[in-house]
From TrEMBL:
Catalyzes the ferrous insertion into protoporphyrin IX. One of its GO terms (cellular component) is cytoplasm. One of its GO terms (molecular function) is ferrochelatase activity. It catalyses: heme b + 2 H(+) = protoporphyrin IX + Fe(2+); Fe-coproporphyrin III + 2 H(+) = coproporphyrin III + Fe(2+). Keywords: Cytoplasm, Heme biosynthesis, Iron, Lyase, Metal-binding, Porphyrin biosynthesis. This is Ferrochelatase. It is found in: Cytoplasm. GO terms for biological process: heme biosynthetic process.
């Protein structure tokens, strides 16, 4: 979209990133950059370097490349394709007072290169939106660190606001509920599964300044995450359970008909539980025949949704006796998702309506 007036506000959307192509060297380069991030693999530098450059680069990269080949489309990586669609649709929705760009935390387009487009212009404010609904140091935290590092080099640093999380924003819940409802209306399901990207338990404990999280004897049970409170509001696992509760409510799912689980474990450390793999097997063994699976830690379809949830867990479910498995597509370029982004920007760049009203009343009283 051509902008005819100078925009007042900059909007930077940042997603995780994806390889340039599904070829092994590109996947290796992507995994190296991603997993050398100390917020992602939070172990000492030497151990991380050895793990990434010896094990991951040689053994994981060729395996991951095969999976990337499956998810790749004519438009390339879905994560990038939907990222650019979102950028264009949000630019259109916000209009010429806003300048919207997409960057990736790893690989291209890099945060550094995209912020160059913003540098040296007069901004009333920059709004940075890490595209992760639930906060984790490995994702949102890492984006914030990388953006702050770049901005710190600017001569004039404008007002900047980061979106910290949106796991309970009414429009986020509405957007996923709308997508799920279409499937529910078309087919009855025995069970609903909400499967989120996992995290090492160690990272949850590090973020927990109250020694509150994961103190339950059986960390596979909901335990500390059964409700949100002042002690666990920064806990990624708690935020995921909160998203599940809100979606279950929006969709009128009866208590007991839905579960929360965590996928995509990497390495030997203990990750947050229950693991999706175990839950899928258990559901099939209990005699559940049809499952509708949501993946609400992702805002765009990617390897982790299309292949891991849509294909691998489906196969596992069928292997253990399940019959019908359906993945709910991600937000991708859905109108409610674009509206959520627009609202999150407007909430930070326009005066609240109540304030406008108050100012109007004061002005009228003076007259
Ligand atoms: C939704 C938020 C995400 C969190 C939290 C997260 C943590 C995390 N991830 C890894 C390791 C891998 N993740 C991979 C892919 C991947 N991860 C996310 C999102 C989160 N990761 C997305 C959106 C994707 C897909 C990217 C795409 O191009 O489609 C991969 C690469 C794929 C593979 O080889 O399996 C790895 C590896 C860790 C270690 C971690 C937390 C510490
Ligand atoms: Fe990941
Ligand atoms: Fe917690």
């Amino acid at each position: 979209m051509e902008l005819s007036v100078s925009p007042r506000f900059g909007v930077l959307l940042v997603n995780l990133g994806t390889p340039d192509s599904p070829r092994v060297p590109d996947v290796r380069r992507y995994l190296r950059e991603f997993l050398m991030d100390k917020r992602v693999i939070d172990i000492p530098l030497l151990s991380r370097w050895l793990l990434v450059n010896l094990i991951i680069a040689n053994f994981r990269a060729p395996k991951s490349a095969k999976v990337y080949q499956k998810v790749w489309t004519q438009e390339g990586s879905p994560l990038k394709y939907y990222g650019f669609r979102t950028q264009a649709l949000l630019q259109e929705a916000l209009g010429e007072e806003y300048f919207v760009r997409l960057a990736m935390r790893y690989q291209k387009p890099s945060i550094k290169s995209v912020l160059k487009e913003f540098e040296g212009k007069h901004w009333e404010k920059l709004i940075i939106i890490p595209l992760f609904p639930q906060y984790a140091s490995a994702t949102t935290g890492s984006v914030k660190e990388a953006v702050m590092k770049e901005l710190s080099r600017w001569q004039t640093i404008p007002a900047v606001e980061f979106v910290q999380q949106f796991y309970q924003h009414p429009l986020f819940i509405k957007a996923f509920a709308e997508l799920g409802r279409k499937h529910i209306e078309a087919h009855p399901y025995d069970h609903y599964l909400f499967t989120y990207h996992g995290l090492p338990e160690r990272q949850i404990r590090k973020a927990d300044k109250h020694n509150y999280c994961l103190t339950h004897a059986n960390t596979a049970e909901i335990g500390c995450c059964s409700s949100l409170n002042a002690k666990n509001s920064v806990c990624y696992r708690s935020q995921c359970f909160a998203t599940t509760r809100l979606l279950a409510k929006a969709l009128n799912l009866p208590e007991g008909s839905y579960s929360t689980a965590f996928q995509s474990r990497l390495g030997k450390a203990i990750w947050i539980q229950p693991y999706t793999e175990d839950v899928v097997k258990k559901l099939a063994q209990e005699g559940k025949k049809s499952v509708l699976a949501f993946s609400p830690s992702f805002v765009a379809d990617c390897l982790e949704t299309t292949i891991e949830v849509g294909e691998e867990y489906k196969e596992l479910f069928e292997e253990y006796g399940g019959e019908h498995w359906q993945l709910v597509e991600s937000l991708n370029d859905s109108p409610t998702w674009i509206e959520l982004l627009r609202q999150m920007v407007l909430e930070r760049t326009t005066k609240p309506k109540a304030l406008d009203l108050m100012l109007q009343v004061i002005a009228e009283e003076k007259e």
